[in-house]
Design goal:
heterodimer, A: about 220 residues, about 85% helix, B: about 30% strand
Chain lengths: ~220, ~210
């Protein structure tokens, strides 16, 4: 119970800190809006099919993850508060708190990206909302799980930006391709059962990443 | 936790195969104190972090005992207060918010309002409690670190460069804190200052 309350307190601290400074949120929102507008201009004379829409949607979510999710740990390192957190929280509390933060952030951004696609692209019609929702939620959580542990690993290194992208890219390939596949099915109007194998893959990925990360995190965090 | 003890056994720390220090062994119980001294780069801050449990030794072990039983890692943080130049609180929050937030993360519940008030008055920050820490001077930040370190009444207080950035009033407050800790708990001071090292009964020169 105490660990749960501590995890919630850490998550609440990060949300409050982000709300007050808006360091990550503003830059990520700017990135999302400009990326969607660039795609809008690039495709103004083309009517994309569901596969292309799905690809473009996940490319924006993918690069949003690549550009902003490392902040969870990098910000603590830059402010010199890593030692403070090490003193007050166990590694498990820090891992889950940061995972919830990254998950929340990427889910909110995925929602905003979806709304922008709906507003800007008349051809972007979700025919199977349940499949679409499951794709976005499971894909985003898969991205958050991989980006959280990689962010923890690179936070204490130099050349973080490059290292983050290099380490994260191979880890995100599986959820990226799977989520793109199931999102395409949602735009084509496929029933939930047609995408069940994709969801099982995304769920399996999420479970493996979270289990592996929670075991590894203590060693990454302490030294 | 009426009784508390820390035992270091043959502790070695290496960074990139460079040995910072080796075979450090000592034990401290309630009422005891030790000053860690040595030239720059001899590992005073590193040993402080190892004693605080935030850095692992390359070899050897650090154990904490309460009431004769070995404490697990999760319980150790309840017993340790640490002040260090490498430790910062959150600039975007006020002093009051920092203490409440950090106590919630540590124990899942807020520190008692009376304890927070007592400590902020002790370090002379009560009148500035609602100001964001980002606008504090380095001395005020150092004072706030003491309030943070003492919030949970630690049995083991570790002070690394205890009076850096402090004015004469601040130094007196720290001296009082150190004297009180020496009576009721364990005090570890990492310093090059002879006055500060004199606060402790034992000395370890690196």
């Amino acid at each position: 119970m105490r660990a749960l309350l501590s995890t919630y307190a850490l998550f609440a601290k990060d949300v409050r800190s982000e709300w007050r400074t808006r360091h990550a949120l503003n830059s990520l929102l700017m990135f999302v809006v400009t990326a969607v507008i660039v795609i809008l201009f690039a495709l103004r004379s083309v009517e994309p099919n569901p596969e292309l829409f799905s690809g473009m949607l996940w490319v924006v979510i993918f690069f949003t993850t690549m550009s902003g999710m490392s902040r969870a740990f990098v910000a603590e390192e830059d402010r010199g508060t890593t030692l403070t957190l090490q003193l007050v929280a166990s590694p498990g509390v820090v891992f889950w708190g940061k995972l919830f933060l990254n998950s929340g952030l990427i889910l909110v951004l995925s929602g905003i990206i979806s709304v922008l696609y709906k507003l800007f692209f008349s051809g972007f019609v979700v025919k199977s909302p349940d499949v679409y929702m499951a794709s976005i939620v499971l894909g985003s959580l898969g991205f958050a799980s991989a980006s959280t542990i990689i962010a923890a690993i690179i936070a204490k290194t130099s050349g973080r930006g490059t290292l983050y992208a290099v380490l994260l890219f191979p880890l995100l390939i599986i959820p990226l391709l799977t989520a793109m596949n199931s999102t395409t099915k949602s735009l084509e109007g496929a029933p939930f059962n047609d995408a069940i194998i994709d969801f099982q893959t995304l769920l399996g990925y999420l479970m493996v990443m979270v289990a592996g990360s929670s075991l590894l995190f203590e060693y990454v965090w302490k030294d | 936790m009426s009784d508390f003890k820390i035992v270091l056994t043959n502790v070695v720390k290496e960074f990139n195969r460079r040995v910072v220090f080796e075979d450090i062994s000592f034990s401290l119980k309630i009422g005891e104190s030790i000053a860690i001294t040595g030239k720059n780069g001899t590992g005073k801050s590193t040993l402080s972090k190892i004693v605080a449990g935030v850095l692992s030794p390359s070899k050897g072990k650090v154990e904490y005992f309460a009431d004769g039983k070995k404490l697990d890692a999760d319980r150790v943080k309840d017993a340790i207060g640490f002040v260090s130049p490498y430790l910062n609180v959150y600039d975007e929050f006020s002093a009051l918010e920092n203490l409440i937030i950090l106590s919630r993360i540590r124990s899942g519940k807020s520190a008692l309002a009376a304890r927070v008030e007592e400590l902020l008055k002790l370090v002379n920050l009560w009148s500035r409690r609602d100001d964001r820490v980002g606008v504090y001077s380095s001395g005020m930040k150092q004072r706030l670190k003491y309030a943070f370190a003492l919030l949970h009444r630690p049995r083991l207080l570790i002070l690394d460069e205890p009076t850096s950035n402090l004015d004469s009033d601040g130094v007196e407050v720290v001296k009082t804190i150190a004297q009180e800790q020496r009576k009721t708990g364990i005090l570890v001071v990492a310093t090059n200052d002879k006055t500060e090292s004199a606060w402790c009964r034992r000395r370890l020169h690196l």
